Structures are given as structure tokens and as C-alpha cells.
Amino acid sequence: TILILDFGSQYSHLITRRCRELKVYAELMPCTTLLKDIHFKPQGIILSGSPYSVYDSDAPHADPAIFELGVPILGICYGLQEIAWNFKGQVAKCEHREYGHATVQRTRFGQGSVDALFEDLGDEMQVWMSHGDQLQDLPKDFHVIGQTESAPFAAVAHNTKPIYGIQFHPEVTHSPKGKAVISRFVLGICRCRANWTMEEFIGKEISRIIDICGPKGRVIGAVSGGVDSSVAAKLMHEAIGDRFHAIMVDNGVLRLDEAKQVHEMLNKDLGVNLTVVDASELFLSRLEGVEDPEQKRKIIGNTFINVFEAEAAKIEAAAEEEEKQGGEAKGLVEWLLQGTLYPDVIESISFKGPSATIKTHHNVGGLLKDMKLKLIEPLRELFKDEVRALGRLLSIPAPLVQRHPFPGPGLAIRILGPVTREQVKVLQQADNIYIEEIRRANLYNHISQAFAVLLPVKAVGVMGDKRTYEQVIALRAVQTEDFMTADWYVFPAEVLKRISSRITNEVKGVNRVTYDISSKPPATVEWL
Ligand code: XMP
């Protein structure tokens, strides 16, 4: 295992990803974590970048004990300065913040194992820099292994210990050999074995779940038809069979025929024990007249809890009754399944606290914390692409594994005005045509997320000889790696043409279709 200490850089989670891509398990922890509180012995430690300067009075520092542990250490950007700070080197502000491409020249070759970081990587490397401070002087017992035009100490190594510092960011894709540098550190210097695979994970996780739940405990969990909850449900089913109960709540703002499709998929294809609750009346009545997006999210989140808790109580009552009747004693519901992924965990362990809220993403997790059930989170170590790989291994059908994400508050945040049954129907139809045509053009898997939005304006049109005055649909499609930033997708014109013509012809009440060409930032993926 590689321990990554997070000093708050926006790239910290990418370091974790790169290690995992090398099939080495890596865990990100706040930089303030004390060595004695870490539950595993790391084979190597990576110190991330940071928005701070090491000499700021409130600058975060690592537990100095890590330098005594004897395992290899790699400091990236601020991590390099943190090493220098520890070894009493000089760090100072650059005259100009350096941001962008640079070329690192290797300065020292073949000095034995201490210079192993850049082995076999050539004499020059294109790298990505993003820093305001840099090393002014070498700390005692260190030597230079790489420099750029403006940074004479762009890469340094300890003379006798496996401690390295680099000014550039190897974790970003703008550093083409960055992954090789991380590989040199993790596989070469730390000698980690490349054995973190989803095949291994399934076996270990199933035994862990069986251990946690014991021979009788039951688990309930919400499923949405999305990949995370489906994979989590399937894993639970593999581990404890019918002692796992999935509940799907139809909140009235799902996609066209979604509840029916998910029901079929989970029951038939995954064999999971599933209850579908149609609570659409309740949700839509509570949403009546509400326009504010955050208000919509709140109502949907709270109503979800009410409905879910009522269903959970029913399942628990039935379990109790079964036990009383002397039926097979399967035990009571003790656990709540959560499809929490690693990015949510990273977000919540940040040493600065969760980043500023732009939208309160309705995460069922946070909201259900008050329930008396204990949480079980089998995906909490995984990134989205790992969950997809896991899904494939668990024989979950490919269309489900590749599904675009769908927000918890559903179409309610894609209807820009008040949510009514009629508006939901209009949007469902338009969205369905849009996705159908994307699939027909074989573009679905090239796009990260695509959906239609119903605008709260009317526009003039003409149909036959008549003037129309109807609603407008906006189409959105983005490509992104992590949904933190996103580019709008460039469709072939003929696909857009077909989509527009079908929507305006087939969806009653819509006479105009527009395509959203905003990237994130400054826009967000959803309109609300
Ligand atoms: P934004 O709009 O923040 O979206 O750029 C990024 C990703 O998050 C999804 N999203 C949500 N998911 N509840 C969710 O479960 C929400 O309230 C919510 N708002 C946005 C969005 O669909 C995209 O995938």
C-alpha cells in the first residue's frame, strides 16, 4: 500500500488514481494524520501539492515521524518544499508564479539506487508545473537530479535515503512521462507488487461482507438503476443472497419507463431481492409550485427518507413476524447498504473540510445517517471506472455498467420551472428521443452524460399555416473524466438534425430545440 498525504492540492486524488492504474493500492489521507493512527504499514509515502506556502503561519505539515520510518518518500510540488522544510532547506516565492509546460533536464546519472527515480526515462522530460514557491537552496544531504530553465532544483534526491522531491506534477496527463515517474517510484523504488485488481477485490470484499453481517444479519439498500447502486446490490447479493433487500423508490421524476426497466433489470438480470415503491404522487404533490432548485433537492431528499424508512420498517416487521412464526431465522435488518465511492470519501476526509458547496448534491448517504442502522459501504475504496470493471466481472449487463449518471433529484432539476406531471411527461419524451438517437448513432459510450432540459420559456413557431407558441427544449451532452470540469460534446450535425426534427414532431408542446455549448466551468453540467 502507498500512503498519499493530502495537503489540499486539486490534483491529490489523481495521484491515488495513477497508483491504482499501476495495480497498486493507494490510500489518500489528510496530511495531518499521525503515523500512529494509520492502520497499515505503507510501503511508500507520497506528499501531495498544496495551495499553501510552507512558511505560511497556518501551513499544514506532515507528522515528522514519517521521515524516520525508513520507507521511500516522494514529495510533489508542495511535497518537495515540505521535505526541504523538514531538512532545513530554503524555499522562497518565485518572482512569477510558474504555471504550464516546462522541460526537465536530468542532471545526474547512474549514482546508484538513490537516483532511481528517473531511470530509463531519457535525458529530458516534458512536465506540467503549477507553483508559486520553489527551492532556493539544497537541503543538507540532498543533490539535484533534474532542473528546468527557471528551477535549478526541480528534482532532488537524498544522498543516502530513498527520499525524492519533484517540483512538477507527474499525476496530471499534461506530464506525458508522469505516470512512468510514479511507476518508477511505486514499483521500482518502493517495490510494491502490482496486485490490486478487481478480481482480487471481489473475493476479499465478499468475505468481508459475510464477516461483517454474520450468519443472520439482514441488509437493506436503495437502488436507483445507476451503476453504483446496482453493483453494490449485486455484490451484496453474491455475499448474503436474499438477506439483502433492495428498495427502489419511484419519485415521479424518473426517466421514461425507468422504474419498470430497473425493476426488470434488477430482478431478472441480477436476481436481487427488490421492492419497487411508487411514491410519485407524494413527491409530485410536495414539489407543487416549487421553483427554487435547492428547495426541490431538499424536498426530494426528505421525502425519499420518509418513504425509504417506511419501507425499511415494513421489511423489518415482516422479518420479525417470520422469526416469531418459527420460520427460518434470518435475523433482523441491521445494516444499510450505501454505494459511496472513493471520491465522496476523499471529499469528506479533506483536512480543510468538504469544499465549498456549489449545489447540495442530494447524497442519500448523508441524509440517512440518522437511521439506527449501521452503514455498510462495499465500494468506498473504489473510483467510478473501478466500479464499472467490477460490474463487468459480476456479469452485470453492459448497458447498465455504461449508463450515464442520473442525479438523485432526477428530472425535477431539469425542469426549470415548477414540476408538474405534464411537464415531466414532456421532458421524459424529449429526453427519451435524444438518448435513443444517441444510441442509434453509436455515440452513447463516447459521451459522459447527455440529457434534455425543459426551459421555462415559450417561443413562437409555425406549424402548417398556424402560428404556435410553445416550449423550448435544451440538449446537453458533455465529456469529462471526473465531472469536476467538462467539455461540451461536438455532435455530427446530422445527428442533431435528426434529434431536433424528432423532438419537434413527436413531443407535443415543444416547437424549438437548442444545443448547450457551455463548458464547466463556468457552467455546471446540470442547469440547476
Ligand atoms: P454539476 O451540475 O454539479 O454536475 O456540474 C456534476 C454531476 O453531478 C450530478 N448532479 C447530481 N447528482 N444529486 C445527484 O445525485 C444532485 O443533486 C445532483 N446535481 C448534479 C450531475 O448529474 C453530474 O453528473
From TrEMBL:
Q: Which residues form the GMPS ATP-PPase domain?
A: 196-403
Question: Where located?
Answer: Cytoplasm, Cytosol
In terms of superkingdom, the source organism counts as Eukaryota
Question: A single Pfam family, by name?
Answer: GMP_synt_C
**Gene3D superfamilies in the record, alphabetically?**
3.30.300.10, 3.40.50.880, HUPs
Any idea of its EC number?
6.3.5.2
Q: What does this protein do?
A: Catalyzes the conversion of xanthine monophosphate (XMP) to GMP in the presence of glutamine and ATP through an adenyl-XMP intermediate.
Q: How does it assemble?
A: Homodimer. Also forms a small population of homotetramers.
Q: What is this protein called?
A: GMP synthase [glutamine-hydrolyzing]
